[in-house]
Amino acid sequence: MSDNVSLEVVNNIALVTVNEPPVNAINQQMRAGLLEAFKEIDQRDDVAAALLICDGRTFMAGADLNEFDTGVGEPNYREAYAAIENCSKIVVTAMHGTALGGGLEAALSCHYRCAVANARLGLPELSLGIIPGAGGTQRLPRVVGAKAAVEMIFGIAAITAKKALEIGLIDRILDGDLKTEALAYVEELLAADSGVRKTSDMTVDTEGYDDAFISEMKALAGKRMRGQNAPHLLLQAIDDAINLPFEEGIRQEHLTGEEAIVSDEARGLRHVFFAEREIGRIPGLDKAIEALPIKTVGILGSGTMGIGISIAFADAGLDVTIVDPSAEALERGLALIEETYNQSTAKGRISEAQKSERFGRISGAASYDSLSNVDLVIEAVFEDMDLKKKVFAELDGVCKPGAILASNTSTLDINEMAAMTKRPESVIGLHFFSPANIMKLLEIVRTDKTSSEVVVTALKLAKQIRKMGVVVGIGSEFGFVGNRMLTMGYMREADQMLLEGASIEQIDQAIYEFGFPMGPWAMNDMAGVDILNSVLESTGATAANPKPFFNVSRALAALGRAGQKSGSGFYKYEPGDRRPHHDPLVDDIIKQEAAKLNIEPRKIDDDEIQQRCIYALINEGAKLLAEGIVYRAADIDVIWHYGYGFPRYKGGPMFYADLIGVKEIYETICHFQDQFGHYWTPAPLLEILAKDGTGFLEWTPD
Ligand code: 3H9
User: Fold this and answer.
1) Are 98 and 161 in contact (CB under 8 A)?
2) Residue 136 Cβ contacting ligand 1 at under 6 Å
3) What is the pairing mode between strands 112-116 and 120-122?
4) Hey, which of 18, 65, 250, 464 would you mutate to test ligand 1's pocket, going by the most ligand atoms within 8 Å of its Cβ?
5) Which of 244, 455, 505, 563 could cross-link 525 (Cys pair, CB 3.0–4.6 Å)?
6) Cα-to-chain-centroid distance, residue 231
């Protein structure tokens, strides 16, 4: 048929097997193969039924996303799947692994469906900014009803075979070997004289699909997919499934689907999908290098970071020893961990047994001696270079040879810490984001001497604890990647705009409208205004930068307005309530700071706020790329999505820059430089790309 679709007739059953490792993603060749196979089966007199299965670890996991950027080639999905459905012989499919997107849509075109018990079935298209455009919007509601179909598509996560059986998506769960059991099922259907059962002939059950349900789904989409268009397109397509004849509905789905595929939203979401997988590929790293075994972990410090990191490891099945010389602090830390697990059980996220097992993996100790046998230590002590140096020297003396020594610092130079040890090759930064058990980003900071083996180990570990591990370097400036862009770009600009006349609420709202979960000031109040200030001071950033430089933030910190934890920061807070309230006192502080610098307030519009914050990020990102602190632009995008909530559907700052056009960004920044002065110098790489007419994503270092 084609290289990835084969046809074999066993007795009177035609076995159609798909084989496109690793995940049987559907491409042009596969559609052509399926079309040819089912046309042939339709014509053959020696065939009574067909069975569609997949080789390898999974059923078809969906359309080949690479094809979306180049255009979906002929035959299209509609044609190929119509050949399956319109086949005159009964067509059965048996699923294993993950039957997703276009894969499940192929199954919906078959007349009977079965799956092994551990199979997962789903239509995750909305997570890619598209609709199930290979017949899914028209066939799924016909099979399971409109309500269950929308719940499944909006739910994104794949459902179990058991659930699929319950809602009528599959007809049977198979026990044992997929092919043997599926063939037996086909024989059974033939023996029972079961006829062709076309999904397109069915009508949609609309029970429960009422205004209240639709409003509930819209609210859900507004919360989880805010700013995205695909959920609205989906609801329209379901309406079509209910109200239009199948052929008309499917024609409409095709048109809508094609449009969605090339939308900015879908392109951004696809970019993040591939970027998430690309971060693990380190240029120049020998693929033969194996990760070191990590089974036991020591954590230094039982503060917020220490306990969050401990939970992340315990959740992934590693044994954790938390060391804190203060018995009181340790006791408090362990109690907090237990409380976190109690909350997880109360919310039904984990069982009592899982709680005991996970909490049981964490123990506390007062002395470094208990770390003599662990495979990895992560220090999460106070951000103070002298203290950290002492800690590294001590750990080097205690820990076994080969044990990895890691720092969770967010800004300090890990090279200096490594220099305190006799094993600088085993020293690395593991920069977790707070709360460390929840936030998915892990910046893996290589020092000048970190060995490749240790980098590979850190990447594997990140996967094990379900984090997005992005390998970054140490630059000349403050912070690694995320925090450097945050402070030197985004937040600095937001602080500047306060002086110029924008209000705190206006900035936060404009950034929220851009798609972030919250604006910079609500975020700073959460993280601690004092923390930002002390980091700017201790790293010398404040001294190195001419004013204005975080004048409002520093003024608030000086007044003890540390944010939520102290009841006031950029906003004020009622006791026990995290909702921010306007504080007129802050307006006065801002006015005083502006007056000191002779800055006349003016009206700033929301577009300017968004542009200045986001372009400042992009400019700093361009510097990081040119300095080689990250391997590629996509790494920055992953960092900003997972660490700071940059809207996924906008792809991350560097993707967004390419979307807008680097030339336009460069020209706007030049204009900002004229208007606001020195600190808006365009990054040299931005200028080069603007002149070349290229973009960040295609740029590679020489
Ligand atoms: C769709 O079907 C649209 C239709 O409705 C309408 C059409 C008109 N395409 O994740 P992994 C690659 S939308 C291309 O590491 P795992 C992936 O990049 C699609 N490539 O493995 C990686 O490559 P590399 C709906 C794909 O075991 C390799 O396969 N389907 C695709 O952790 C292994 O992937 C989805 O959204 C793809 N669709 O997870 C499912 N999928 O090794 C998307 C994977 O070079 N896929 N690759 O880095 C997944 O969720 C996971 O890959 C899966 C396996 C759960 C299947």
Assistant:
1) no
2) yes
3) unpaired
4) 65
5) 563
6) 19
pLDDT tens readout for residues 96-155: 999 999 999 999 999 999 999 999 999 999 999 999 999 999 999 999 999 999 999 999
pLDDT digits over 284-321, tens only?
A: 888 899 999 999 999 999 988 999 999 999 999 999 99
Q: What does pTM read for this prediction?
A: 0.94
- Between the CA of 126 and the centroid of ligand 1 the distance, in Å, is 14
Give percent of the chain with pLDDT exceeding 90. 90
Q: Could you tell me the two tokens for 112?
A: 């009977």
In short, whether 61's Cβ falls inside 6 Å of ligand 1 is: yes
The domains of the chain, with CATH numbers, are 5-262 (3.90.226.10), 296-472 (3.40.50.720), 482-628+631-692 (1.10.1040.50)
Q: What angle do CA 241, 247, 249 make, to 5 degrees?
A: 30
* Catalytic annotation, pick one of 125, 265, 443, 500: 125
Q: What is residue 663's three-state secondary structure?
A: helix
Active site residue 383: no
**CB-count burial class (<10 Å; 0-12, 13-18, 19+) for 211:** exposed
Per the prediction, the chain carries an average pLDDT of 95
Residue type (1 letter), 532:
L
User: What is residue 9's predicted lDDT score, i.e. its pLDDT?
Assistant: 94
Q: Which pLDDT value is given to residue 431?
A: 95
Starting at the earlier edge strand, list the strands of the sheet with 319-323: 362-365, 319-323, 296-300, 376-379, 404-407, 427-432, 441-446, 468-472
For residue 25 and ligand 1, the question of a CB distance below 6 A is answered with yes
- Among 456, 440, 294, residue whose Cα is nearest residue 375: 294
